[in-house]
Amino acid sequence: MKLAFDEARKGTDTWLNPKVGAVIVKDSQVLASGHHQTFGHEHAEINTLNNLKNISMAKGATIFVTLEPCSHFGKTPPCVQRIVEVGLKKVVIGSLDPNPLVSGHGVKYLKDHGIEVENLNIKTDLNQAYMFSFNNHRPLVTLKYAMTLDGKINKFSNERSLISNSIAYDDAQDLRSNNQAVLIGENTFKTDNPQLTVRNKKMKFPPVRIVLVRDVNSVDLSKRIFENQAKIWFLSETKAHRNLPDNVEVFVGDWNVKNILNLLNEKKIQALLVEGGSKIQSEFAQAGMIDHLVIYLAPMIFGNGLGACNGQNQQIKTIEFQKPKYKFLGDNIRISTWRKK
Predict the structure, then answer these.
(1) CA gap 172, 194 in Å, rounded
(2) What does the angle CA 221 – CA 226 – CA 231 come to, to the nearest 5 degrees?
(3) Is 249 one of the annotated active-site residues of the chain?
(4) Phi and psi torsions of 158, nearest 5°
(5) CA 66 remoteness from chain centre
(6) Per the residue annotation, which of 7, 42, 45, 186 is the catalytic one?
(7) Sequence ranges of the binding site for Zn(2+)
(8) Which residue positions form the known binding site for substrate?
């Protein structure tokens, strides 16, 4: 199973699908291994079977797969049917799939067709956001910001303050690449003029860039966010009455935190990175919707300015986190912690 998990980690373009790896074993010898490579393409079990020198070698063998095989028609046919067809004798799974389309159904299909199934119930963070989103019916939320030693995230409210060094900046790009959507508010959109792209690596499925605005019709189309063709979602209080680029989608509503997360859950977004300023930070804190916190601490003092989670007229609920982990990034420190369960 360790080999199967090693295979699973090779899947870098699975997007909305979980990372899954598989290994086929017979007479204590590994016959083939494989993983799910790309969203919409063959799953790990099929790739592993295709990697056999001869498909007849599968008869009577055991397949170790990190997650329960699928039993429904999606973008690809059910993996369990192929497992039965080739004559595999036993399937060992790392855990059940929390997706209700799969959960338990794959195991039942295999058992009903005479295949022995063993569930190891392995707890792992390999598909943390995938597991979380199906179990909690919302995306896993990471809040990220850079901060000075005196707790400030911005010196002036109407202009961007540079806080992080280049190493911390690159680390933040990696963090962005591990999420399926990035959210900012209108003030950050206007003041920082960000692209919200992942610029240190090529991604087949870059994160959706989400901007919370009052009126999408007032958005400045010369902003840098429009220089890239990755998806942009505007969450607006008003309908669009103007032509917008093809990669832009507008959602109209009353966009509090609950409604934002409900929309993202409907859109199957499993991991959200909140990069907005103090107002959005405080709104997510007030709603108790911060699961993962990443802070980049820089050795400087502003003396005055805006602090983190500094919303107006809001009483921020206390959210307790686990013991933080620290990592030096040059003269910056990355502080990472997860919410207590």
Answers:
(1) 14
(2) 125
(3) no
(4) -115, 10
(5) 19
(6) 45
(7) 43, 70, 79
(8) 176, 196, 275
Separation in Å, CA 86 to CA 50, 64, 83, 216, 283: 11, 15, 6, 54, 53
User: What is the pTM (predicted TM-score) of this model?
Assistant: 0.93
pLDDT in 10s for each residue of the chain, 341 residues: 999 999 999 998 999 999 999 999 999 999 999 999 999 899 999 999 999 999 999 999 999 999 999 998 777 889 999 999 999 999 999 999 999 999 999 999 999 999 999 999 999 999 999 999 999 999 999 999 999 999 999 998 778 899 999 999 999 999 999 999 999 999 999 999 999 999 988 999 999 999 999 999 999 999 999 999 999 999 999 999 999 999 999 999 999 999 999 999 999 999 999 999 999 999 999 999 999 999 999 999 999 889 988 766 556 678 999 999 999 999 999 999 999 98
Inter-residue contact 78 to 107 (CB < 8 Å): no
Domains annotated for the chain, with CATH where assigned, are 1-126 (3.40.140.10), 130-338 (3.40.430.10)
296 close to 162: Cβ distance less than 8 angstroms: no
Q: How many CB atoms lie within 10 A of CB 175?
A: 20
Token digits of residue 180? 């399926």
- Extract the annotated binding site: 43, 70, 79, 146, 176, 188, 192, 196, 199, 275
Q: Which residue has the tokens 């060992």?
A: 92
Residues annotated within a binding site for NADP(+) = 146, 188, 192, 199
> 14-45 b/e with 16+ CB inside 10 Å = b?
bbebbbbbbbbbbeeeebbbbbbbeeeebbbb
- Distance between CA 197 and CA 194 in Å, rounded? 8
